[in-house]
Specification:
This protein is an alpha/beta fold. The protein is about 35% helix and about 10% strand. Strand 1 (about 55-60) and strand 2 form a beta hairpin. The longest helix is centred in the middle third of the chain and has 18 residues, at about 155-175. Keywords: Carboxypeptidase, Disulfide bond, Glycoprotein, Hydrolase, Protease, Signal. Belongs to the peptidase S10 family. InterPro entries: AB_hydrolase_fold, Peptidase_S10, Ser_caboxypep_ser_AS.
Length: about 350
Amino acid sequence: MAVAMASALLMLALATASAAVSGAGAPWRSRRPRPEADLVTGLPGQPAVGFSHYAGYVDVTSGGGGGKALFYWFFEAEREPDKKPLLLWLNGGPGCSSVAYGAAQELGPFLVRSYGANLTRNAYAWNKAANLLFLEAPVGVGFSYANRTSDLRRLGDRVTAQDSYAFLLGWLDRFPEFKGRDLYIAGESYAGHYVPQLAELIYEGNKGASRDRAISIKGFMIGNAVLNDATDQLGMVEYAWSHAIISDELYSAVRRDCDSFKEEADGGRPGKGCSPALRAFLGAYDDIDIYSIYTPTCLLSNLSSASAAAGSARPRPARLVAAPRLLSKHVRYVRRLCECGCCWHATDLPAVARRRSGIG
């Protein structure tokens, strides 16, 4: 809760950051115009840094005219930003904020931590290797907005890709020194859809684009990606088996009784043994972090020290924060909602977006 509150305050500070221009920043910045109104001159608890960062909106309304805009947070590379590629990061969900989660919890240079009042420098920030651009997409996520309820009712993968492509073209107009710079797209979770679909749209758009409008995409990366249920579910089981988390016998039982997770439309017929096999599979993660299997985990529940000393503390069962359909269907303690409040069923996204933006 403390981390979520701090992330929300950080996002609010970004959205209301002063537009005043300071003279700080790398010398190369002056070679091309920058949107100085988007320059973030400081955040509460921000440590001193030698790079500039920007936050603001890019209009993605079809034909222009406003009404729909995506929010971004951009960090220059720590060193020699004029020689580093541009990397666009997308969180998934659908509905997860790239600012509140990707930037503030994972790979951004400033991390929000529950144990400190100030922002913490990330020793493994990705802007050590690239110029780092976080995008809140689709509209209704984070600070990205639409003024028309109809735009929120149209949400889906295709619209998200189209809006993200329009954002990139608009953002490059605002930061023209990155036109022609190598671009990589990366993301996690439902960005397993967003990233390759955006990459394909860029590839197709480049075919008829002028040199000024072509985007120099070089590659993409997706981690813990949502692809499709059959692939995702089988991959989880094979990963556990190949890392000795489950036995050969359990692996064979899951493959056999769950019919290798084939969809019913493709002839899949899970048997009665599928549910107990999946419960045993998730039970193997009772004392292991399913998202980081080599990370130490706390096995004590929130009991008093006296109770713990008396030996009454019990292991806290591990739970997935999100899962493919078959796991959710057969294993009742799988939670569909992320701790960050961002993993929603895709069919719920328009309603979620309306609640977040106060529209409709």
